[in-house]
Prior knowledge:
The complex is a heterodimer.
Chain A: E1 4-11, E2 21-28, E3 33-37, H1 44-52, E4 59-64, E5 67-70, E6 83-86, H2 98-102, H3 110-123, H4 139-151, E7 157-161, H5 169-186, E8 189-194, H6 197-203, E9 206-211, E10 214-219, H7 221-226, H8 231-238, E11 241-248, E12 251-254, E13 257-260, E14 269-274, E15 279-281, E16 287-296, E17 301-306, E18 314-318, E19 329-334, E20 338-341
Parallel strand pairs in A: 3-8, 3-9, 6-7, 7-8
Antiparallel strand pairs in A: 1-2, 1-4, 4-5, 9-10, 11-12, 11-14, 12-13, 14-20, 15-19, 16-17, 16-19, 17-18
Chain B: H1 15-40, H2 44-52, H3 54-86, H4 92-98, H5 107-118, H6 123-128, H7 138-163, H8 166-174, H9 179-208, H10 211-215, H11 221-230, H12 234-265, H13 283-314, H14 320-353, H15 357-371, H16 374-388, H17 396-419, H18 424-432, H19 437-466, H20 469-474, H21 482-491, H22 495-510, H23 513-519
Amino acid sequence: MSVIKMDNVTKRYNGSPKPAVKYFSVMVEKGEILALLGPSGCGKTTTLRLIAGFETLDEGAIYINGKVVSSKDVYIPVEKRGIGMVFQDYALFPHLTVGENIIFGLKQGKQKRKERLQQLLELVNLEGYENRFPHQLSGGQQQRVALARALARDPVVLLMDEPFSNLDAELRYEMREEIKQIVKSTGVTTVLVTHDQQDALSVADKMVIMNQGVIEQYGTPYEIYHNPISKFVAGFLVKSNLLPAKVQNNILETPLGKFPLPGECKAQHGWLSIGRDQIIIEEQGKFNAQVAACNFAGQYTEVRLKVDGLSGELICYQSASVPLYVNQWVRFSVKSYQYIAGG
Amino acid sequence: MGLPASDMIGKKAAPMLYLGTSVIGAAMFIPILYVIVRAAQSGIERWMRLLDTRVPELLWSTLTMTLTVTLMAGIIGVVLAWLVNRTDLPGRRFWSWVLALPLVIPPYVGAISYIIIFGPRGLLHDWLGNPLFDLFTFGPTAFVLTGFTYPYVYLIVSAALKRMNTNFEEAARCCGLNAGKTFLKVILPALRPAIGAGSILVALYILSDFGAVAMMRYPTFTAAIYFQMGSFDRSGAAILSFILIAITLVFLWLESKSREKMKFYQTERNYRTGKIYGLGRWKWPALVLVNLAVFSFVVLPLGVIAYWGWIGIAKGVLDVQFFRYMWNSFSISALAAVICMLLSLPLIYLKSRYPSRLSLIVDKISYAGYALPGVIVALGVVFVYIKYIPFLYGTAAMLITAYILRFLPQAMQAGDSAMSLISPRLDEAALSLGKRPWQVIIQVIIPLVKPGVLAGGALVFVSSIKELPATLLLRPAGLDTLAVRIWIEASEGFYELAAPSALLILLVSILPLRWVLSKY
């Protein structure tokens, strides 16, 4: 049985014609980490707040451990849902020490609370920090305190709102791994919200890509990355090059030329999606292009290619050691591509 | 403050500016210093006699009143701020500004309106044959003072509630706390600095108030100093002042402490407005409370003063005499306001652009006058004029000096906030375009701070018109102002003569209301 079940959940805010979340259904299994990914304003934070109980829904129902917590007639208050939450700005109480923050919600006796505090400090690697105040900690430490506080009551569900957005690149990389490890060691079912593809891809077991209040695609990070089913997902998650395509006799006709149709034909019109790492600049390449720009990024170079007959530019990542020059003519080939059916 | 101190390394302000600032700072400080020196010179015998007799009694009455009013104003201020900002109280937008109105009613005018109704010769006495209760006792006095000071707490706590990070509340709910416990364990602690800051303003006001307590015939230090001066016992007045200054300093120290703490609580901006709680069955009690507060401290005083003012006007109070008082009030206050604006300019400029130990000290000293009771400022001014400028003793110059000492901080606060909005990069841009420093000040700084400085001047003007104790003590013989007339007529029970002046003061006070409210 799934720990969280959302069944056709719809949420409208007063004064806005479009629902923030529309007919949203998803199930999260025990111990799974689900990432809600999407651009800002896509409804992912609203979804998280609906699970927490900070918002009430207009249609549908939310179940935690099989019990209705939100529906048209039922509303279980936040504190009775068995959730823990890590806030984007951590929301550590500034008037309390690290230790007091962590055991803030515990109702056991003094001795029990002390033991639990030690366990939690150990879990998040902050032994010895219990008497500091939040403002004396670094960003990563604050985040671990917030995580320990959220886990203190052994929640059924852990919710995380943009957990990595306040950290710099280096720390972000470390914390992704660390948080995933901590969460997995406790076995708590987790839902996290992020707008960063890397966060979601590296931490989540399952992902929901959201756009304008609806689910665009659901699956494991690997599945979605390699098989985006909509133009939006291909553009947002894979950041692939998208060319309009028409199917004729099992051949894709695109501005770049004709390509054999992979798989079955689901619709006459659609998009040809070519990943940035699937365009290879090589002498024996099939296509001609002029280099429009080169952005050296260390391990690879981002190259923008101008192709005759194409309105936009193609973007590809090259690890080639041969330097390229702007306006230089090159040849390239397409290693693999996908066909995304529909507008 | 506009820029980090490191930006200022290697820059030096013009020596003239430093000199001017030092002179202003010293001038602000000397009168107070004189009070302290005179108190110290009074001799052990005088000290012992006062300490044995008056002082314990005054300490008790002053401190009990201060603490009682502070506590009550704190509770009322927090409850009202919560109701208006975070509950579904009907009409909360309307109440939110009406509840702040008592702040612009001078407490002595408020006290008069209560005396007119409940006083020994008041309306109730006329109708019922007895005034129901003795108004001139601890309880009613505390009630009246609370009613005209709670807005300090109410406004500061309201502002804190609006700024508060709602994530704290939500985090507490996630930790399993219900709404009530969340309030006690998270919201209240987060509001503590705001409550502290508001309460200390109330306490400082009560310590320095003269008009209301004197009208209510309640003995506090200020009243005692006033009467001591009235009987020309200046050493006695100086000793009592010394003790009151010491008490005030303790509260000022507490205030700076609470300010330090406040910083931690203003975490990141949060654009989500706080959750609005349903009052349920508490809706009616809450409405009754809000209505009671507005009736007692807005409708009743304004109504009583307007009614008696109208009677007075019908009886022909608005004669040549009245317009002379008005002219006296307005001209002296306007002069004080203009001088304050001029003096505040170099102070705020130096503080913002060349922060140094000197500018910091001058800043702190200038603010001291704010907290000091008018009677003490008056005493200091008397000492200084007798000793150094006797030819101006007994002229309106003394009055203007006292107004400047008391209200320069108001002009500075307004100027400071305007100045802090002007980026030092603007100065640098003007300098890079070939302007001399003095040209930068005239062509860039002054035009930009002008609105703030003018607002400060308006505040000084209004405060000077309302000022009572220093005016009573320092006015030249025969020079009566509106405030003085209110005091004299009301003390003798001629309310219809006092009311038109009070009405005019109320009208003038309401003018800068918008600015006063936005300050918190």
